[in-house]
Design goal:
Layout (H helix, E strand, L loop, with lengths): L1 H28 L4 H5 L6 H10 L6 H13 L14 H36 L4 H15 L2 H15 L15 H35 L2 H8 L4 H12 L1 H25 L5 H11 L2 H29 L8
């Protein structure tokens, strides 16, 4: 197990290094100069050259790359080109809790909806409940997150005035202010996610219910609740957990868009601003952190297999 974990950690570090390298050089392939755009009104070439020298962008690309890699190894992401030239690490540290809060609440709401919906659809196959879950799944997968977010703002914030439309309040300032600002974006992000998980639970449960050991358990007179919750559902979790790990990337991608709709200054909004401003250090640091979240989420899913099914062991 430890040997497998070590190999996976090495692989995760390699993937993050490849992602960082691709982002670094692709940002520099895109035509345009951030400092010329910044000083468009003045049109002072000397000032633009001075800023390039200050941020080390006057050097060849390979020297910039190795300098950036060396700084990353020392925990330094550089300084943002735009604004007050704040450290990128500080900007990410301020934005990361907002994105993680949104992702966690979206994940919780999606699982809260998807698990009972998938179980009901599987145990009542080809009934009205099954068709209702199927329709919900198709609608949830078809609606873009930003469109759902706009509808939620119009209905609950603009018309009913029940919830705030924009902004974020830290959890330290109270649960309700934090929850009221995140519930609408969490619903917008989690709708599609819950549809994916509900469909996957339904398919996995149907396959398990057809097995011989489930027929044997049913012949012993066990109740439907015991058959479903203690026999069928645990054995259906392996493919579901796999899909959850993959779909988490979709959840994070939806958070990037929804954060801009609700004006939440999280990683998504930070990344969009960095791309629009061609802020090299900010984009590189943000994508490195996001890729790290993806990679280690998949590693966590692999480790969960051994908890869900004790027969699975990562041995030689």
């Amino acid at each position: 197990m430890l040997r497998y974990l070590f190999r996976r950690l090495i692989g995760a570090i390699f993937v993050m290094w490849v992602v960082a390298m691709l982002v670094f050089f692709m940002m520099r392939i895109v035509p345009g100069d951030p400092f010329e755009a910044m000083l468009f009104d003045t049109g002072d070439p000397a000032a633009a050259q001075e800023l390039r020298k200050k941020f080390g962008l006057d050097q060849p690309a390979y020297i910039q790359y190795f300098t950036w890699q060396w700084n990353i190894l020392h925990g330094e992401f550089g300084f943002s080109i735009y604004g007050s030239h704040q450290p990128v690490g500080r900007l990410i540290a301020e934005a990361l809790p907002r994105t993680l809060s949104l992702a966690a609440l979206s994940f919780f709401l999606a699982i809260l909806i998807a698990v009972p919906a998938g179980i009901i659809a599987a145990t009542r196959r080809n009934t009205g409940a099954d068709y209702a879950v199927t329709i919900f799944a198709f609608i949830g997968l078809s609606m873009p997150e930003f469109w759902v977010a706009i509808l939620l703002i119009i209905f609950f914030a603009a018309n009913l005035h029940w919830l705030p439309a924009i902004g974020y309040v830290p959890l330290a300032e109270g649960f309700w202010p934090w929850f009221s600002h995140l519930i609408l974006p969490a619903i917008a992000v989690g709708t599609g996610f819950s549809a994916i998980i509900a469909r996957m639970i339904r398919s996995a449960m149907i396959e398990v219910l057809k097995t011989d050991y489930m027929r044997l358990a049913k012949s012993k007179g066990l109740s439907r609740q015991v058959l479903t919750m203690y026999h069928a559902f645990p054995n259906a979790l392996i493919p579901v957990v796999t899909v959850v790990g993959i779909a988490f990337a979709l959840l994070m991608a939806g958070a990037v868009v929804v954060e801009n709709v609700f004006a939440i200054k999280g990683l998504g909004r930070l990344l969009i601003q960095g791309i629009l401003n061609r802020d090299y250090p900010l984009v590189q640091g943000t994508i490195l952190v996001v890729s790290g979240i993806f990679v280690f989420s998949n590693l966590l899913v692999d480790l969960l297999y051994t908890i869900i099914d004790p027969r699975i062991r990562y041995e030689k």
